[in-house]
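Milestone M4 deliverable, item 7.
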Amino acid sequence: MNALSPWAAAAAAFLEKEVVSLYQFRAGIYTFDVYPDKDTVWIQARWPKGGNILFRAAYSPGADLQVSRKRTTENSIDLQLSSVMGLIEIQISVVQGERPVLRYTTRITPACRTMIPFWPRDIIFPSLHGSPENTNGKIHLQQAGTRSGVLYVSMTKPKTGSLLYLQNLTALGDYCEQTGTSCAEVVGGKWPELGLSLPTSADHPLEPGKTVVISDALIAFEPTVPTDEPTITEQYLNLLAEVYLQLPAPATNYHHWPDTLQKGLKDLIHNHGCWTQVEGQTYLNAYLCDYATPPEIMVQLAILLPLIDYSEWKGEKQEITDQIKAVLPSFFNDELKTIMRWLPAAEGKLEGEEEQKRPMVMDSWYLHHPLINLSRLALKGDKTAEKLFLASLDFAINVAQHFKYHWPVFYKMDTLEVVKEETEPGKGGEKDVAGMYAHVMLQAWELTGKKKYLQEAENAAKTLKGLGFDLFYQANNTAFAAGALLKLYKVTRNKTYLRLSYTCLANIFRNTRLWDCNYGYGKSFPSFFTLFPLNDAPYTASYEEQEVFCILHAYLKLAEEEDVLSSVILLSTEYIRHLINRAPYYYPPMLPKAVLSDEVKIGEVDANVWVALEDLHDGWEKNGAVGQEVYGAGNAFGIVPRHYIRIPRKDFLIFIDYPLTAFSRRNKAVSFTITGDSRLNCRLMIIKAGKDDITHITVALNGVQQTSGRKRKDGHIEYVTKGGDRVVISFREDDQA
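Output delivered:
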């Protein structure tokens, strides 16, 4: 028997009455009724087999709600209500489809200065006859920190179905601004009372006469209860995509990334805070002006690979790449026969202020990340990288087999003694490292053709089964795992690996923020669809976001000839589009100085230097408190080659903020297909990159020449396109730079 609050008990009592529906509409197998009560406006959703859910669309503690106006359409109703609190307005609608989406938006205009010391949650799960005590369900996940205001649940008693509830927390910005509150962990609860509970404030009231949104909920319904991990994570992705299609996502703006890249490249090369010297060799620092920490191989490679991507796109070699390559062999330990995290010649500088900052201590993912990047270099033909990579494989395999493909957080490299077993008691170690290791082994197999590496990849991949939403340790690790699993599927045709790749992606998308933190300091920069680097991270981070961005590009490329979930395509391409919009604001010169932290944990923050901040926070906290991460410098170098098409000897660029595929160049035209969902729009631009006129360049979408290109004040020409469009761009042969 479930324990009930007085608000849930009142809901049950309401259902026992003879009540008349104010409005009823149907969507597929579902029936929705709107019921006004003295203190609440309820929306009842019913399944034909007995499922029953109540949504609290409006609430007044004075029990004096009066409907003063009603307006209806076929699939919506708008209500205006009066109460002691003031004027309340509700918009309720249902989008028809296989997975219908209910949305209700509630606004209040207070009659007086109003404090909100408590607010009941807006979902109750009663039984068919109104009693919530006898129902049961499974909460698969709910909001953590300032991530999405999401709730994904299945109703198991009675066995009815599943739903995904997403609170559009962007809409609560004015409420949070007035009350000085945060949207952190406002969506959650305990069965049978779930959903949004408004953040409360005892110090900052709502002002009279100012209308604020206090709820904007979207709920997608599914008539099945998943019984295994793959079905749960796939249902989550599908429901999330359905809700996303109805979510009022903020508009994006064009940012000229080639300029940002040049500013970042200049500061990376010439700012002394980015570099340190050890025994006559020059290394990149992890953080600006952090000279106390020894150089790390991960840092060198995390910048080198995006630089090489840019060099290949530009057709010009960057001298800095040779400088970084030259120091890579100094990280190899001849005794252990492996690359090391810390530069062996400088390990003596480690003072042990953190567990991993001790000689010979390895953070499990740190071994595999450099190996992935070394293998990428090796596959490009770099012999030094190939030598370092192949020479380190036996050590990596020995570690994997020693820990039976379940890596701890920290271990000693010389003894394999565990320094820290679990992230938290009972939570296990770095679970997604098995996927990174599989990635390393697949790269080794591709490089050498030796099947033992393919077998190792499969051995590790199988250990990811059963982890569900607990698989995620660090965002880029989990993304690497998703890519490795998709590649394993393509090699073996074992569908288990494909479905495990979906589990990885579900873990990534549950760690995003599908709302814009538009209160406090957060008003200074966009934050919609940001990704958090760790399960418990209180901030988003440039480096992990940039890597996930690039890995999702690679995943979509691998998926081109496969029948992958359409929800995966939709969510991945939208994450990419919004990152391109948000990522400039990791650079301090893009931010007001007032939003930068006065205290910095590592190194220094220089507001004039184009090196990305590690950390962007909730709107009531300042940003850059950790420092400026030099190893996040790959941001622009990852975006430009993937989203700008450069035509040699031409005085223009082509920009598209979705990924593309099937690119070709023939004579006076280029063509490509936009990867993404056809129900969502993206931006295509002809970028003026010199003095030549670009108005004669023509764009055809799906065989139809476009005449609707908008000429912007900056001289560029912009088109609205969508996922799946086939694009042909034609130009004159004499367009010379």
